[in-house]
TrEMBL record, chain A:
Record bears the keyword Cell wall biogenesis/degradation: no
Membrane topology qualifier: Peripheral membrane protein
InterPro entries: AAA+_ATPase (IPR003593), ABC_ATPase_HisP-typ (IPR030679), ABC_transporter-like_ATP-bd (IPR003439), ABC_transporter-like_CS (IPR017871), MetN_ABC_transporter-like (IPR050086), P-loop_NTPase (IPR027417)
PROSITE patterns named in the record: ABC_TRANSPORTER_1, ABC_TRANSPORTER_2
Keyword Electron transport: no
MF terms (GO), sorted A to Z: ATP binding
Identification of the protein by name: Polar amino acid transport system ATP-binding protein
Subcellular location: Cell inner membrane
Organism (species): Pseudomonas cuatrocienegasensis
Family annotation (CDD domains): ABC_HisP_GlnQ (cd03262)
Location, primary (coarse class): membrane
From TrEMBL, chain B:
Key word Secreted present: no
SUPFAM superfamilies documented for this protein: MetI-like
Keywords: Amino-acid transport, Cell membrane, Membrane, Transmembrane, Transmembrane helix, Transport
Alphabetical list of InterPro entries matching this protein: AA_ABC_transptr_permease_3TM, ArtM/GltK/GlnP/TcyL/YhdX-like, MetI-like, MetI-like_sf
Positions of the ABC transmembrane type-1 domain: 18-205
Primary location recorded for the protein, binned into one broad class: membrane
PROSITE patterns noted in UniProt: ABC_TM1
Protein name per its UniProtKB record: Polar amino acid transport system permease protein
Family under the similarity heading: Belongs to the binding-protein-dependent transport system permease family. HisMQ subfamily.
Biological classification of the source: Bacteria, Pseudomonadati, Pseudomonadota, Gammaproteobacteria, Pseudomonadales
Organism of this sequence: Pseudomonas cuatrocienegasensis
Source organism, top-level taxon: Bacteria
Length: 252, 220
């Protein structure tokens, strides 16, 4: 009996105002795997990520998080908010624009979900949050408010916040795209460490070096279609499609 | 300066009126703020109730406060409810200013960055906890100056209640001036007392502003 995949996507489709953004996407992400999602702007990468935790509601298709179907209940109806929230709590998400909660300190940002959503005891949540902040190198800013941090620092806190829920999978939506070039490295380093610790990650990114060094699978989206899925070595040295070859040439 | 000595003799009436005004003000704005916050929570769901609430807020804002006070005090008895002047006044203040508080918070809700709410949803937050923990604190911090302004309005609106016979500060001054024919002195004292309360309010609001400044919401 193989292990249940962390994320299983079957025949996912999504349109916005009649424009097909995702077309019949299927993807399996096993536990501990890092999957990088590449593609040009508007290819549907972010939408794919946002469908996985139902921030966007797909039109068709089935998504399972650690074996549990998200968004649709056992009777094929729209899942109620309580159940949806419970599954979402098992995923983490890191956004391009950080989206830290500005009224809370760094430590409170990381503690908030475990305490409020998981009803964890405060001292327990604090211990976890402090350990995670140390992991991302932000323990010295525990009592600072988000607006005092640099972009890279904010993103590292956002990663700690996602980790605090012990998610089955962490979804990264272009986590370094809003950062100054000299801040990109510190976030990528944290993400590399996470991958070597066995976290399951799906990363929408434009960072080729990272995708090549860290991924177990690289997938390429073009106009809503998943046109290539391979191991990073193959993807970057000997891609199957002309489109990917072109993409790699242009981004080299 | 016999007028001032008359005022001094009547200090008990003034203090009693001022105390009544303060109690009415504090109770009504606490209730109004709570109702306002809860109303904006109900507006989070897009349903029939939220549409009705939007209308209710707008109707309330289009109503002169005095008319609402009249309506509650003189109108309710025809429905078989006979409120005291004080009770009718308190309820009128509370629901009238609740509508304004709701409208102020609603305005801030519209411009609240969607990403933060998505982040909360992605971490498993929903409805009530999402609102009270993530959304509302930010709305309150962001709208502090407007909420403060509304408190001043609420304080001044308590003076209208003299007309439905509530024994608050303005009523006390009116009774003193009518008895001794010293309107100028009586109302100067009243103005001074309203000013004192307002200034204390302003100082408290300024102090509250540091919560926002510390979090980068405003520049102190």
């Amino acid at each position: 009996m193989p292990e249940v995949p962390a994320v299983q996507i079957d025949s996912l489709s999504k349109s916005f105002d009649g424009v097909e953004v995702l077309r019949d996407i299927s993807l399996t992400v096993n536990k501990g795997e890092v999957v990088s999602v590449l593609g040009s702007s508007g290819s549907g990468k972010s939408t794919l990520l946002r469908c996985i935790n139902w921030l966007e509601e797909p039109d068709r298709g089935v998504i399972h998080i650690a074996g549990e179907r998200i968004g649709v209940d056992a009777h094929g109806k729209r899942m109620n908010n309580r159940d949806l929230a419970a599954i979402r709590a098992r995923t983490g998400m890191v956004f391009q624009s950080f989206n830290l909660w500005p009224h809370l300190t760094v430590l409170q940002n990381v503690m908030e979900s475990p305490v409020q959503v998981k009803r964890m005891r405060k001292d327990e949540a604090r211990a976890i949050a402090e350990a995670l902040l140390e992991k991302v190198g932000m323990e010295h800013k525990a009592d600072a408010y988000p607006y005092t941090l640099s972009g890279g620092q904010k993103q590292r806190v956002a990663i700690a916040r996602a980790l605090a829920m012990s998610p089955e999978v962490i979804l990264f939506d272009e986590p370094t795209s809003a950062l100054d070039p000299e801040r990109v490295g510190e976030v990528l380093t944290v993400m590399k460490n996470l991958s070597s610790e066995g976290y399951t990650m799906i990363v929408v990114t434009h960072e080729m070096e990272f995708a090549r060094a860290v991924s177990d699978q690289v997938v390429f989206l073009e106009k809503g279609l998943l046109i290539e899925k391979s191991a990073p070595e193959k993807f970057f040295t000997n891609p199957e499609t002309e489109r990917v070859r072109k993409f790699l040439e242009l981004s080299a | 300066m016999t007028e001032w000595s008359i005022i001094w003799e009547a200090r008990g009436a003034f203090l009693n009126g001022a105390l009544n005004t303060l109690i009415l003000f504090i109770l009504s704005v606490l209730a109004a703020f709570a109702i306002g916050c809860f109303t904006v929570y109900l507006l989070e769901a897009r349903n029939a109730l939220s549409t009705v609430l939007r209308w209710a807020i707008n109707l309330m804002r289009m109503l002169p406060f005095l008319v609402l006070a009249y309506l509650l005090y003189y109108g309710l008895p025809s429905l078989g409810v006979k409120p005291s002047a004080w009770g009718a006044g308190l309820v009128a203040l509370a629901i009238y200013h609740a509508a304004y508080f709701a409208e102020i918070l609603r305005g801030a809700r519209i411009v609240l960055p969607a990403g933060q709410i998505e982040a909360a949803k992605a971490h498993g937050f929903r409805s009530a906890r999402l609102y009270w923990r993530i959304i509302l604190p930010q709305l309150v911090i962001r709208t502090r100056p407007l909420l403060g302004n509304q408190l001043i309005y609420a304080l001044k609106d308590t003076a209208f209640l003299t007309i439905i016979t509530v024994q608050e500060l303005t009523a006390a001054a009116n009774s003193v001036q009518a008895t001794y024919f010293i309107p100028t002195e009586a109302f100067i004292v009243v103005i001074a007392l309203y000013w004192v309360i307002s200034i204390c309010l302003e100082l408290a609001l300024k102090w509250a502003g540091r919560f926002g400044a510390k979090r980068g919401f405003e520049h102190a």
